[in-house]
Amino acid sequence: MSKEMAIVTGKLPQIPIFKTLAVIGAAIFLIQMDPISKDAHYRVQCIQWNMTERAKAPNRGETMHLESATRVCNGLGGVQ
Question: Which residues contact 80 (CB under 8 A, 6 or more apart)?
């Protein structure tokens, strides 16, 4: 009867192991997300900077569109 009570109350020896693995998994996830978030932050700043600089310089033509600014920041080519 004590085994059934242990299952109902959740006092199994596997619970601490599960909690440990969950913490380790969360830590690995956060370590992997840090460079991705830094790269995304850089790209957003780059796009905002390109669009505002393009808008400040009327002699360079029309305002830069989001698609062209994204291409410039991704390194896929300059503005035409």
Answer: 68
Evaluate whether residue 80 is within a structural domain. no
Global model pTM greater than 0.90:
no
> 42: alpha, beta or left, given left = phi > 0 and alpha = psi -120 to 50?
alpha
- Expressed as residue numbers, the domain containing 15 is 2-74
CA atoms within 13 A on the CB side of 46: 15
pLDDT tens profile 2-53: 565 555 555 656 677 888 888 999 999 989 998 888 988 998 898 888 878 7
